[in-house]
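Thread: "does anyone have the structure for this chain?"

Original post by V.I.:
We have the sequence but no experimental structure in hand. Need at least a predicted one for the grant figures.
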Amino acid sequence: MKGFGAIAPNNVGWMEKDRPVCGPMDAIIRPLAVAPCSSDTHASHGGSGPLDHVILGHEAVGEVVEVGNLVKNFKPGDVVVVPCCTPDWTEKNMQQRGANNAHDAGLMKSFKLLGSWDGVFAEFFKINQADANLVLKPENVSIESALMTVDMMSTGFYGVEMADVQFGETVVVFGIGPVGLMAVAGTALRGAGRIFATGSRPNCVELAKEYGATDIINYKNGDVVEQILALNGGQVDRVIIAGGDCSTMTQALCLVKPNGTIASINFYDATDSFAYPAYLWGLGMSDVTIKGGFCPGGAYRIEKLLNLIANKRIDPSKLLNYKFEGFEKIEDAFKVMDEKPRDLIKPIVYINWD
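Reply from O.Q.:
Generated one for you, tokens below.
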């Protein structure tokens, strides 16, 4: 089969590989719509370790073409929503109380579409333990909105969950790319009273407001921390980091109150290092909680996100502002995601196999 991915670090292109083999609990799927992600481009440059002829892609809605003999809930022809994180539910780590299922056999090992095997930018791809990791696409949810649940919405909402946003609180969201925009939307759904969102791109600013941001903080207008402290009259309850670099953690520590929470869903590079003055963390005494994590996976989580869309609580399809038609256009969409023109929020590729 044909697929697009990393031939070597900083070298992407098309490749021929064997079609994946379906195990007894697995499903083989062909993509109907895919969305390149910054994690794919980051990986292609060696950001998660050198890749050698690995098909990329982890955001897809697809059609089932084959299922294993133990699969009960799916059959060929079903249109399914594919979480970016597909845990092996038999792993011992899944039995830990309160554990994030993103780490089944170790750090981020549930992220199988960018690590354990080839991803979704292919004529066919495999999903393990299909009954636990796939969801039928509801008729009243568009393919665009369904596609945005699998990573962008799931990751953005996980930042809100880690921050433990409560109704009436004041929250800062750093970054209003697609994940940050979903963090803004999730924060609003959780009932935050005031939501500061940092960013400067006009289309992202307008969408942040639509999703619930009450204040937009533009770094071009001065120091971000000083702007927020002045407007709020002091520190905030929660901070969600969905963009920036290691210095953003220092800004977050400046902003959050004692007993507050900082949640990072940002993907840092292996060469990055955190460094901040101890006094910003109250010399270790401020009871500020710092969390960082990767979005959970599995069918149950995606079903809940789809339920929000089906009942018109949120429309994540508005993230998709670059659209491509045809399997071969995956390469063009990937390049757009890598180059990130200023008006880009998120690309989608529609694939018609007829």
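V.I.: this helps a lot. The mean pLDDT is 96.
O.Q.: and The domain at 2-137+315-350 is CATH 3.90.180.10 (Quinone Oxidoreductase; Chain A, domain 1).
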